[in-house]
Amino acid sequence: MSPHDQHIKAILGHFQRASQRHDRYTLFSDCIEMIALSISNAVDARTFEQREARYLEIAGRYDQQTLELFPCILAEITMALETGPTDVLGELFGALGIHNTDRGQFFTPYSVCQMMARVTLGDTETARARMAEKGFVEALEPACGAGAMVIALAEAMRAEGINYQRQLHVTAIDIDPRAVHMAYIQFSLLHIPAEVVVGDSLAMDMRDRWFTPAHILGGWGERLLHARLRPAEPECAASSLTGNPRDSEWQPYWTGWLDWMRGQGWRRSACRCHGCDHR
Hints:
57% helix; alpha/beta
């Protein structure tokens, strides 16, 4: 069994133990939302009070034994992504059998997403020319699901030597808040600069916005504004203002901003899995 499969099996085991006391559908949704809220509240001060209240509301529904499983699940998700970029939560969602088939909710297999990403990226010279113009490219995913297409695009860019952490910004939308939470978690752990939105792309009805740590800590609000106001100018001026790393400098998927969060005093319940060391 591969390391990736071992982590998926461990996550399924955690949910299996907790689902003896709770509905699996609700348990998964609440766990994923609490993880997303924890990540958001570590970096996004604008929504802190509202999302902290929501976090505590969800936590109040569960006993301590169940709550202590949630950090373990986050740890396994993180380590699964460390084995290589892929749609961990989409795979997990299907394995748990909780997708909504009545609404036609099926997540695209990651291998298909990889093929589509390579086709979308196409001639990298075109993408590089756009980057030379404003410093980065933007991607819009109007029905993002758990984020597989975006993850595959980031993987394809990195394979071509393009630093997606500094040269890609994503706007991802989904009508299902649970899907948005899944995409937000995976984009955050892979350090993809993104705005993930709960909304209806067809009706242009946008309700809730989630900015990844890479977006906030990378100064992407300023970078996007600068590029849109002065699209013909190179992006280096915005970089010098924000003090961001150079495009060739990779940031760790997880440990870099996790250390930063700890330095800000961020804490959640410690993982108490038998024999694990996730803290």
